[in-house]
Amino acid sequence: MDDDDVSARKGSFRKFLEHLSGAGKAIGVLTSGGDAQGMNAAVRAVVRMGIYVGAKVYFIYEGYQGMVDGGSNIVEANWESVSSILQVGGTIIGSARCKAFRTREGRLKAAGNLVQRGITNLCVIGGDGSLTGANIFRKEWSGLLKELAENGDIDREEVQEHAYLNVVGMVGSIDNDFCGTDMTIGTDSALHRIIEVVDAIMTTAQSHQRTFVLEVMGRHCGYLALVSALACGADWVFLPESPPEEGWQEKMCVKLSENRARKKRLNIIIVAEGAIDTQNKPITSEQIKELVVTQLGYDTRVTILGHVQRGGTPSAFDRILASRMGVEAVVALLQATPETPACVVSLSGNQAVRLPLVECVQMTQDVQKAMDERRFKDAVRLRGRSFESNLNTYKRLAIKMPDDQIPKSNCNVAVINVGAPAAGMNAAVRSAVRVGISEGHKMFAIYDGFEGFAKGQVSPRGASWGTGASLPRLETWGRVM
Ligand code: ADP
Fold this sequence. Notes:
- By secondary structure, this protein is of the alpha/beta class.
- The protein is elongated and about 85 Å long.
- The strands form three sheets. A seven-stranded mixed sheet has the order 3-2-1-4-5-10-11, with helices on both faces. The chain has a four-stranded parallel sheet with strand order 7-8-6-9, with helices on both faces. The protein has a two-stranded parallel sheet with strand order 12-13.
- The chain has helices at residues 3-18, 39-52, 63-69, 104-116, 128-150, 156-161, 187-208, 223-232, 248-261, 285-296, 316-335, 357-372, 376-383, 385-398, 425-438, 449-454, and strands at residues 26-31, 56-60, 74-76, 121-126, 166-171, 211-216, 236-238, 267-272, 300-304, 343-348, 351-356, 412-416, 442-446.
- The two termini are 28 Å apart.
- The protein folds into three domains: 3-184 and 314-368, Rossmann fold; 188-309, Rossmann fold (3-Layer(aba) Sandwich); 403-476, Rossmann fold (3-Layer(aba) Sandwich), CATH 3.40.50.
- Bound molecules: adenosine-5'-diphosphate (ADP).
- The site of adenosine-5'-diphosphate has 16 residues, from helix 5.
- Residues 32-34, 64, 97-98, 101-102, 126-130, 132-133, 136 line the site of adenosine-5'-diphosphate (ADP).
């Protein structure tokens, strides 16, 4: 983009905002439910965007509990109150689980506290439970205000002045368990934590020929387990949405022993916290360990990652995602009319979009229903296209087809890396080789880019599926620098 483009864009964004004045409006922002990295970036974006458009923005501390209790839990924020929080994990305004907000009595108190400060715009950052609560609150709002007036807590003018509550949600959840968005705030950071641990474990396990069973978070959603298995090339993964077929115990042991036969020193098995079998019975990491030890006699260790996954600093992706969503959330609040349903700001194909909150919550609950009713194909489909395609990619790259099922092909395919090195090139090569082999092609590696190509540095026997002796180590597939 040249300077003219930049100023044109800035100009049009300003023009767009000219019609969006927040003057005279008050926005309350709260974080609720399980904490997630990136929540602070979302809070910061709401505060700064709110101030930018001339609105007042209030922190509501400790989630819904702070809204019910009022007092010093609801405090006006300024530009500086959100300085230096972008890179901080968790949430600086606190999160809580609040029983009182589940009752009308609690929500009545919360409404009184908001009216007292003129807050009729609410931005909730939390999981599907928190967003469900926000929607109930919005629907009850006029009734709550009527009751407050009847009790003499507010007067009739206040009822009229604050007649509507606008609600917008952002999904903060490390599990990526919300339908309607490609990514929830916190998932990418949690994935980074998991991969750091797997990489660390891989170095120690390599030295001892071990099998590692790693349990990752996700009581109802296998997203973290699936993508971490994809990212570290795990040998087996257990997910609630896609339980292993009957007889999986034997198949898994065969796979692990084949790995050993190919001199692979390390086996990694990833288990989602909520993994189940096709009869909805839990599959635990301890059970898997027992199985490997009794059937194969391998030295097997279990690592349960737990809260480490919520910890640490948010990834760049989560900071950017939350910042963009926070800006969009304020725009959504300013554009809301009494007829606008509560919405959730989502990510769809790299665009921040607004979707009806109720429908997204319903879809999310439908996934659980499908799992409860053992309609696992439906559960995978309902999770969304990216979940389904990640699952297919994992299967394609982790499980080698039996030789008699591989189609016949006369194609010889060579893979070459050219140009500056980039992180992830090895993963791309691995993927290309394995997919090529599954299609029956003969795969070759060309070393040292075009220079190596000119000198005929082509793997003489072709590239194989595994990392056995015949396969040139992918890291050594050089590049022209
Ligand atoms: P998450 O938002 O991460 O899914 P929870 O389901 O625990 O976490 O919800 C967080 C809080 O949201 C609850 O403690 C409660 O205060 C509020 N909440 C959840 N569901 C409802 C509901 N149906 N009605 C009112 N409030 C709710």
